[in-house]
Amino acid sequence: MNQFDTIILGAGPAGLTAGIYLSRAKRKVVIIDKGIPGGQMVLTHEVANYPGFENISGYMLSMNMKKQAELFGAKVISNAAIKAVNLVDDQKTVTLSNGEVYSAPSFIVATGGRSRQIGVNGESDFTGRGISYCATCDGDFFTGKEIIVVGGGNTALEEAVALTTYAKKVTIVHQFDKWQAFNSAIQEMEENPAIDSIMESRIVEFRGDEKLNEVVIEHIPTGSTYVKPIDGVFVFIGYVPNTEDFKGILELNQWGEIVVDSTFQTNLKGVYAAGDSIVKRYRQITTAVSDGTIASLNVAEFLNSIE
What is this structure's pTM? Predict the structure, then answer.
């Protein structure tokens, strides 16, 4: 049994920030993640709106946060195969598949989210074979090619601009007649000569053989469809919270987001949540950092109250 003051599940910006604050307060903290540290940050080609950095890659920002947490004493476990999580008892535990058990009286759920899929025919068949959800990971594979970006929010427009570093032509397919993005993102996209857009439209089917080579696009107001040859498609239509493991344990809303109070505590005593997995309107790195800060300060108060 590895005894800690706090277990943090998830090493995205919320989890790493909480780890920084609690370990700096001399609390014994372990941060456990099923993947690599950084969460959705790692998938961002360039972060240009994080205070203190004119621009920085999401990967580098993630590594900086991880290093800072470790410098203050936090233990970070990545690529962890998690066998079981117990949040109900006074001592919360995480059991790994190798038999190691981590225990603590307080717990922060910061499991974030994952890219939302379109959910049409052919999407699962061509994921990784022409369909991607990560510009940073896969942009280089489409150098000199023509691609589609699906979405109309800040992420879609910003990543479309980033993808012009590789692709010779980027076409944005958006289901509405207006963008759901900040004016700065819209302006930068519109000023890029390599970007075109198809509004009030959606992809209804992906087609190909060994790899994706065409999509069927529907014009939503009329219902008419046509086939567009394409080398690749990048999907940026939001995220799904990673909370499936907590159904029936933590209070979730209809979208699977964790319900928290003003202190970021869940319905279970000593269990807090922060970041993209909770009920909130805006999902940015800065808001996740804020969540992690507030949750950690309240966890510190909780630990003081039970000692």
Answer: 0.80
Q: Note the pLDDT tens digit of each residue in 120-155.
A: 999 999 998 999 998 878 899 999 999 999 999 999
Cα–Cα distance measured from residue 38 to residue 178, given in angstroms and rounded to the nearest whole number: 31
CA dihedral 60→65→66→72, nearest 10 degrees, is: 150
The answer to whether 125 is a known catalytic residue is no
5 is catalytic: no
Q: Of the listed 138, 231, 276, 291, which one is catalytic? A: 138
Catalytic-role residue among 125, 134, 196, 245: 134
CB 34 within 8 A of CB 89: no
Is position 138 annotated as part of the catalytic site?
yes
| Rounded-to-integer distance, Cα 232 and Cα 113, Å | 24
Tokens in use for 55?
């621009």
In three-state secondary structure terms, 157 is helix
Give, as one character, the DSSP assignment of residue 254.
T
Sign of the C-alpha dihedral computed for residues 165, 166, 171 and 173 taken in this order: negative
What span, in angstroms and rounded, lies between the C-alpha atoms of 215 and 234?
Answer: 12
Strand 2-3 vs strand 101-104: parallel, antiparallel, or unpaired? Answer: parallel
